[in-house]
Amino acid sequence: MTSQAPDPTSPEMPPERAPSAVPIDDSVLPFEVGPLDLRGRLTKLGPALDELLAKHAYPTPVAKLLGEAIVLATLLGSSLKFDGRFILQTQTDGPVSFLIVDFQAPDRLRAYARYDEARLEPGLSSGALLGSGHLAMTIDQGPDMRRYQGLVALDGGGLEEAAHEYFLRSEQIPTRVRLAVGEEWRGGEGGRHHWRAGGMLLQFLPKSPERARQADLHPGDAPEGTVTHTVEEDDAWVEGQSLIATVEDVELIDPDLSGERLLFRLFHERGVRVFSSLPMRAECSCSREAVAGMLSRFAPQDRADMVKDGKVVVTCEFCSSVYEFTPQEAGVE
């Protein structure tokens, strides 16, 4: 384990040190394994995740699925090098028909799930909860910049599988993702369950593009007997995949296991270098002024139809904050 450095591209190698035993919640820890040409990020979420999920009385399966989406959004959104937004969103025909995680760089998170409680049967997997539809990942660089969006089909698979498919088809970067969400009981007076989550993203990024080549995608409706192009996987990437496959869910969510120690467990034989951790926090961007601005964009008749019991009431789906306006404040004549 080497010490933290502010710049992953710096040629100066810091002195080796023991991995920190102090766990840091609500953060993303970037790392690299130089001898294997691997780069990655490790997320540990505690109080911030608990705050996001506690704003709604989600059934446990829904909360766990939304927690996975939140972890995935931190792993992907934390790579942004500008003040923008990374938005992860699913729309499907499953019991959980809609998920959205809004990550505003560098550190703000908000999230929401829509579900049909009558269809939540015991024991459903993440893929079964989602059903068929699509996963959209949007990078918003601001009002004066073009948006980038990647789409992945969902057809009974979970978010880990969807992330692998996205990187295979869109980014063409060899990538593996691990996601874990669980509940922790904290005893004492007024004790209750608290949500925890963790995740790891590992990518193979050799300097030579030839070493990163992947096999062609399935030819689809190509004539029978068509020989597909194959590429033998690089030994370094084979080793990296084998190592991340050994990570257990409990290691990712363990409140007493620091991210540095987990990375040391995995990669100490090769040597792993960590960089400054990136803090995460739960914070909604809604405000009375923002809601008033939103109302002003509705047609006059639509605003008039919103008046109930002499007032217009708007509830933020993300944080459940309630904003009340008089008809005059809402622009109703």
Features:
six-stranded mixed beta sheet, alpha+beta, single chain, 333 residues, 2 domains, Hsp33 domain
What does this protein look like?
This protein has 333 residues and is an alpha+beta fold. It has two domains: 233 residues, Hsp33 domain; 38 residues, no CATH class. Helices cover 25% and strands 30% of the residues. It has nine helices and 15 strands. Strands 1, 2, 3, 9, 10, 11 and 12 form a seven-stranded mixed β-sheet that branches. Strand 9 and strand 10 form a beta hairpin. The longest helix is centred in the N-terminal third of the chain and has 18 residues. The protein starts with a strand and ends in an 8-residue tail after the last strand. About 2% of the residues have low confidence.
Helices and strands, with pairings:
Layout: E1 2-5, E2 27-33, E3 38-45, H1 47-54, H2 60-77, E4 85-92, E5 96-104, E6 108-115, H3 126-130, E7 132-140, E8 148-155, H4 159-171, E9 175-186, E10 192-204, H5 235-244, H6 249-253, H7 259-267, E11 273-275, E12 278-279, E13 281-282, H8 288-296, H9 300-305, E14 312-315, E15 322-325
Parallel strand pairs: 1-11, 6-13
Antiparallel strand pairs: 2-3, 2-11, 2-12, 3-10, 4-5, 4-7, 5-6, 7-8, 9-10, 14-15
The largest pleated sheet is described as: 7 strands, mixed
Percent range for β-strand residues: 25-35%
CATH superfamily of the largest domain: Hsp33 domain
What is the helix fraction of residues, given as a range? Answer: 10-25%
The CATH class assignment of the largest domain is Alpha Beta
Short description:
The chain has nine helices and 15 strands. The chain is of the alpha+beta class.
